[in-house]
Amino acid sequence: MINQNINKVLIIGGGPSKVGQENELDAAVFQTIVSFKRVGVKSIVIDDNPYSIATTEIQPASAYIEAVTLDNVVAIIQNEGPDAILPTLGGPNAIKICQKLVEMKILAKYSVELLGLSKAALKLIGNPLRFSQLMKEVQEPIISSTIVHSNAEAFDLVRQVGFPIIVKPVLSSINSRRTICNSFDDLEIALSESFTDSTLNRCVIEKSIVGYKELSIIGIRDPNGTKLIINGVEDIDAIGIHSGDSIAVSPIQTITDSVYQRLRKATLNIMEQLEIIGACEVSFALNPDNNDYFVTKVTPNYNRGFALATLATGYPLNYVTAQLVLGNGFADIHLPHAYAKLTTFMEPLMDRILIRIPLWPFDSLKTVDQHLDQSMKSIGSAVGIGRTVEEAILKAMRSSQFNPRDVLPNMEELSDDEMISQLIHPKASRILVLIEALRRNYPVEDLSELTKIDPFYFKRLQKLLAVENLVVKEPLTEESLRTAHRRGFGDGMLAAAWQTDLDKVRYLGKLKNSVPTYKMIEPSAGEEAHSIRSFYSSFERENESHQLSDRSALVIGRGGNRLGPNSAADYYTSEVLIQMHRLGYKTIIMNNNPNSVSLSPQLSDKQYIEPIQIGAILNIAEIEKPAIVVVPGNRHYLVRQLRQYPDLKVVVLPPDQETGVTLPQKTSFAMNFFVTKDESRFINTVKLASGKNHELKDISHLAFPYAIDDDKLAGLITDAKELISSSYWKGLVQILVLEDQGLFKVVGIRPIRIIETIFLNRISNVNWIKMLVKLYTNQLTTEDLNKTFKNLSFIPFAEMKPKFPFIDLKVDQEVGSTNQEVGAEINLDPPEDE
């Protein structure tokens, strides 16, 4: 039963997004808060991520918008007196802070219980020596490794064991990094980087197992010792490529049941030995020649693997885990109504395939080495879900960065020498290279030997190529249409291949009764009836999704994360869902990012996991008949397509900026206004800063307030209102001002961008996204407007700085532009000299 002594829990947040961490941690924090609230437990959260929906959706007094540091956490413990602390949702930084709290005996001093981790599990994380000891205790095989303190030690060791070897830092200060070394020159570079990364100035040297299969199993354990397996994931790429940069498949496809049972048993063993309460991911390396395995990693804290397992299985992992860490056993947990037919003791079953394809930042960062290795370089991912591997992989490709209007994008420009080089030394375009090699009739056995990818996947790709050939040779026929649909080809792809328009392909599909049906994403493989409202499309007879309401809002998610304001856009999308629901709409989210906050089931009434493409949107719209379609963020190509369909009431928030209006190259600060058809009201000024002489394209560093003489400001407001009256923009509008030698001049106008809207939310005691939603649904009254401006109050100081991925990606660059951001941090403490 629930621990009655726990009434208040401090949750450590994950901080700003970074390489290896999108919004999955914040999604887990948010869902945990909801779960705690259901049983009367209060949550306190510390996080300096301005795009955290978790810190927005709890009482302001319970949200500490501060840097996630040891000192700040100690201060909160002293001020708030929490009964317990939960570090498992805040990534490696939160774990390190709790390790320090235990070492310093802070938790014992203030009688704060550690949730989710036993002392043994806490000591394990980031500690290779403890990991080795634990595996010996449970008699699980690991790769032999040695901790070294200096270059000399490392060189002596490698002379004994030989190359190839792997070097990794002990207690890395950044995202986990493993470097494969094939020479002493490689070793010297790897040691320099790893000693720098290690908080203990130590490195681990281990024998390389490059070429082994990489697999992971996620399990869950309650306080009574009852254990379940939730999910298994297989990386298509072998060890040698970071798992975050590999295409991932769930459930596991290429091992026998007897091998799977061995991995399952090992996972349960390890969870028992560590006395895990909640979820745990165990990673394995499997020798494909003899099926021997090694345990490579144990992760008892939340990560992207947990998020993928939740999306793949439909199991409410975050909700259940939150109840377990409070002391409930599986038998004590009452699942939400949608899961009423389920028992928490049920291990999820899957009657579908999920495939995740990573997304890389190379369009925005041209100088990054695009070769894939043991250092993670992807900054997001997109998933495809289907009945077969072929259908799922093609839907994932349609959801990724590849051109959606191609059939299967080709790489015919590659010479055979370049092809062989990329097969051996893969780049981000790996999947396209594999397809091109098959087009050129490279034998599957040779490709498998070169890449260490299981032949199973090459055979699946061959099936897709056979469908492509059929589509090209037999345009607009029933057989090619039906076959292509079943294998995951979108109508847009077919329209491009057949050199016709999308509507003609859609008409043919209806004529030949080849239209998508929707299947529920639930954890019993159809054995139990549920009211779970999460769906994916397939082309089968039975449809499990029906119109939700005659007053629904279909919100189009951002899709896979890329550099730029994507974390901000996901937060913004989540807020749109919340506000549309509060206005009486049934909310439907369409998205395919496994790490998205906006896919949290508590934020919407229904979810569709589909490619963000016009054909897929139209298919959903035909079933749901939404009263409104909301597109958060400026996606010009998609919006233009949607507006060709007059039956869809499309709203773009913020208003579409593709207007032909020329913006200034430079600006110093901005004035924010809220504009209706009748009036424009001044909100505040905000300082816009960049490292490149105030160039507008580089500005993402925001500060408040911007000091300016009242008389000068009054004059600028008058000029601004004149400019606003001559424009057609409504809602949040920003006037750009340039200062030159003490003179101020209005130089531009634009809708307020997503990141600046969120900053404005944080500093003004007003939810401006709520105001925009009301305005664009014609529900904003004069009384609403008057009340908002009456309640308008600003905090004394705020600063929001962009975070760039330059260090993680080894880019020699300090200042970046807005399309190179990976996240942001917010600071509400004035400088000491003020």
Report, as a whole number of angstroms, the end-to-end distance: 51 Å
Strand arrangement across the biggest beta sheet: 14-13-10-11-12-15-16
**Based on the structure given, which CATH architecture of the largest domain is correct?**
Orthogonal Bundle
Low-confidence stretches: none
> CATH superfamily membership of the largest domain, which one?
Carbamoyl-phosphate synthetase, large subunit oligomerisation domain
Q: Which class best fits the helix and strand makeup?
A: alpha/beta
Roughly how much helix do the residues carry, as a percent range? Answer: 25-40%
Class of the largest domain in CATH?
Mainly Alpha
Shape: globular
DSSP, total strands: 30
Q: How many domain units?
A: 6
Individual helix count: 27
Mean pLDDT: 89
Q: What gyration radius follows from the Cα positions, in whole Å?
A: 27 Å
For the largest beta-sheet, the strand count, sense and barrel status come to: 7 strands, antiparallel
How much of the polypeptide forms β-strand, as a percent range? 15-25%
Offer a quick outline of the entry.
The protein is α/β, with parallel strands linked by helices and 834 residues long.
Describe this structure in words.
There is one protein chain. The chain is of the alpha/beta class and 834 residues long. The protein has 6 domains: 108 residues, Rossmann fold (3-Layer(aba) Sandwich); 64 residues, ATP-grasp fold, A domain (Dna Ligase, domain 1, 2-Layer Sandwich), CATH 3.30.1490; 136 residues, ATP-grasp fold, B domain (D-amino Acid Aminotransferase, Chain A, domain 1, 2-Layer Sandwich), CATH 3.30.470.20; 160 residues, Carbamoyl Phosphate Synthetase, Chain A, domain 4 (Orthogonal Bundle), CATH 1.10.1030.10; 136 residues, Rossmann fold (3-Layer(aba) Sandwich), CATH 3.40.50; 159 residues, 2-Layer Sandwich (D-amino Acid Aminotransferase, Chain A, domain 1), CATH 3.30.470. The chain is built from 27 helices and 30 strands. It has a 7-stranded antiparallel beta sheet, sandwiched between helices. Strand 1, helix 1 and strand 2 form a beta-alpha-beta unit. Helix 15 crosses helix 17, helix 17 packs antiparallel against helix 18 and helix 21 crosses helix 26. It is globular and about 75 Å long. The model has no long low-confidence stretch (mean pLDDT 89).
